[in-house]
């Protein structure tokens, strides 16, 4: 199981909080603040009034993806690609399988049916999900699976040439295949897997849009519960519960006050007080497709400095959006947002805007390609990205605005629109 940064910070924050409160050093106010308030959604049944609108990917869509992948294999000079559990396998087949020390893999040739290798004791679970091709070869616990992979390739006439390996495959697996099939040249599968996934179909865009609408609604519901003395874990729990009430699984990184200047959080316990910046960065999954939104507000009345910084970030997000369109290099979008922030005296480069302006999003929260300096890849209609500039002032606060944009034939569109202001983050 992979723990993402939001989950890590939630767990880390809980551990740090437990230490600070358990060591006898917390005063009565801190003890009261540490109490997790009752979750109003805890016992509520799931009501997928929003998530229930999602339409599953059809068999025909999977077949079209596979045909596109075969075309890209031929263009890249690859005879097959090799995939293990994860998002790319899900993308091409609908199979949902995690990554462990035991090899479960798909060999996807440019010509012929795919083949699969699975642990023998998991064959039944594999057959429940395999819908494309019937060649499933199993290995016992004391056997090596790599000769089975080589056998699948050999039976399809692939004993030499190039095998593309999907980027998340463990080295131990690709190395095992290389040794079992020494006549093959192992290379990156990105020209197939990443190329297929980075341009979304209209159906995929609809699923990503729905996931983002759910997260925005969950944020709006949860932020109504802000109160003096609230700890960040409590707000995080309410955001997760609000997602569940809408029929989705989601969470958020929550940062209060000066801790909002750390873009990916801190393990330090946080207690909310009047005038603190509240930054929440989270998402959910709808049929595997992800959302990613950041909203920043202030508990109480914002200061002039907080308003000023938010207005600059707002203009930077807008500049990135206006720059993004088919044919523009990814790095130009980052440059447009960074110029606004630098011109406002919060530069140069990464001094206060410490990260790239955006990442691709789809079945993974972060996936190819990236809106960052040096990436000269051209935008195409159907690509989806975060647009998330920020200004982070150590010891004071941080402001980030993040929404997902889709590249359209004539430009780009934010799926959930811009947050109007610190006081009104939802319009």
What's the structural blueprint in terms of helices and strands?
Elements: H1 5-22, H2 28-33, H3 59-76, E1 80-84, H4 87-93, E2 105-109, E3 115-119, H5 123-129, E4 135-139, H6 146-155, E5 161-165, H7 171-180, E6 184-188, H8 193-198, H9 202-223, H10 232-245, E7 249-256, E8 277-286, E9 289-290, E10 293-298, H11 304-323, H12 330-346, E11 358-360, E12 367-371, E13 384-387, E14 390-393, E15 397-400, E16 403-408, E17 411-414
Parallel strand pairs: 1-5, 3-4, 5-6
Antiparallel strand pairs: 1-2, 2-3, 7-8, 8-9, 8-10, 11-12, 13-16, 14-15, 16-17
Helix pairs in contact: 6-7, 9-10, 11-12
Query: How would you classify the helix and strand content by structural class?
Result: alpha+beta
How much strand content do the residues show?
15-25%
Percent helix among the residues?
25-40%
- Supply the CATH superfamily name of the largest domain: Creatinase/methionine aminopeptidase superfamily
Backbone shape:
elongated
Question: Oligomeric state of the chains?
Answer: single chain
Rg over C-alpha atoms, rounded to the nearest angstrom: 24 Å
Distance between the termini: 37 Å
Number of domain modules: 2
Order of helices and strands: HHHEHEEHEHEHEHHHEEEEHHEEEEEEE
Number of helical segments with 4 or more residues:
12
In the CATH scheme, the class of the largest domain would be Alpha Beta
How is the biggest beta sheet arranged? Answer: 6 strands, mixed
**How does CATH name the architecture of the largest domain?**
Alpha-Beta Complex
Return the average pLDDT rounded to an integer: 91
Biggest sheet, spatial arrangement of strands: 4-3-2-1-5-6
> Which spans of ≥5 residues are poorly predicted at pLDDT below 50?
8-47
Reported by name, the CATH topology of the largest domain is: Creatine Amidinohydrolase
Instruction: Give the tally of β-strands.
Output: 17
């Amino acid at each position: 199981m992979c723990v993402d940064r939001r989950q890590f910070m939630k767990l880390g924050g809980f551990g740090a909080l437990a230490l600070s409160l358990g060591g006898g050093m917390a005063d009565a106010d801190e003890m009261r603040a540490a109490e997790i308030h009752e979750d109003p959604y805890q016992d509520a049944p799931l009501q997928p009034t929003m998530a229930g609108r999602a339409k599953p990917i059809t068999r025909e869509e999977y077949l079209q993806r596979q045909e596109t992948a075969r075309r890209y294999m031929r263009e890249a000079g690859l005879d097959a690609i090799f995939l293990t559990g994860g998002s790319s396998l899900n993308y091409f087949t609908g199979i949902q399988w995690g990554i462990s020390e035991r090899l479960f893999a798909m060999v996807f040739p440019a010509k012929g049916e795919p083949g699969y290798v699975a642990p023998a004791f998991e064959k039944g679970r594999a057959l429940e999900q395999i819908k494309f091709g019937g060649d499933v070869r199993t290995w016992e616990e004391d056997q090596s699976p790599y000769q089975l992979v080589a056998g699948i390739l050999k039976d399809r006439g692939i004993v030499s040439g190039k095998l593309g390996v999907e980027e998340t495959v463990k080295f131990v697996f690709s190395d095992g295949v290389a040794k079992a099939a020494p006549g093959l040249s192992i290379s990156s599968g990105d020209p197939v897997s990443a190329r297929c996934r980075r341009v979304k179909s209209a159906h995929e865009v609809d699923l990503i849009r729905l996931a983002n609408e759910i997260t925005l609604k969950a944020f709006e519901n949860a932020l109504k519960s802000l109160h003096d003395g609230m700890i960040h874990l409590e707000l995080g729990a309410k955001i997760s519960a609000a997602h569940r009430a809408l029929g989705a699984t989601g969470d958020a990184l929550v940062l209060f006050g000066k801790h909002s200047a750390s873009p990916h959080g801190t393990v330090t316990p946080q207690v909310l007080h009047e005038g603190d910046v509240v930054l929440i960065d989270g998402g959910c999954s709808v049929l595997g497709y992800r959302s990613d939104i950041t909203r920043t507000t202030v508990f109480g009345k914002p200061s002039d400095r907080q308003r000023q910084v938010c207005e600059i970030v707002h203009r930077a997000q807008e500049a990135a959006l206006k720059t993004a369109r088919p044919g523009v290099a990814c790095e130009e979008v980052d440059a447009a947002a960074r110029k606004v922030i630098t011109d406002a005296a919060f530069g140069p480069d990464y001094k206060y805007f410490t990260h790239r302006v955006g990442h691709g999003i789809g079945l993974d929260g972060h996936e190819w390609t990236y809106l960052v300096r040096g990436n000269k890849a051209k935008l195409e209609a159907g690509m989806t990205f975060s647009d998330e500039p920020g200004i982070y002032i150590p010891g004071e606060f941080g402001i980030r605005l993040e929404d997902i944009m889709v590249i359209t034939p004539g430009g780009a569109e934010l799926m959930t629109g811009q947050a109007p202001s610190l006081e009104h983050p939802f319009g």
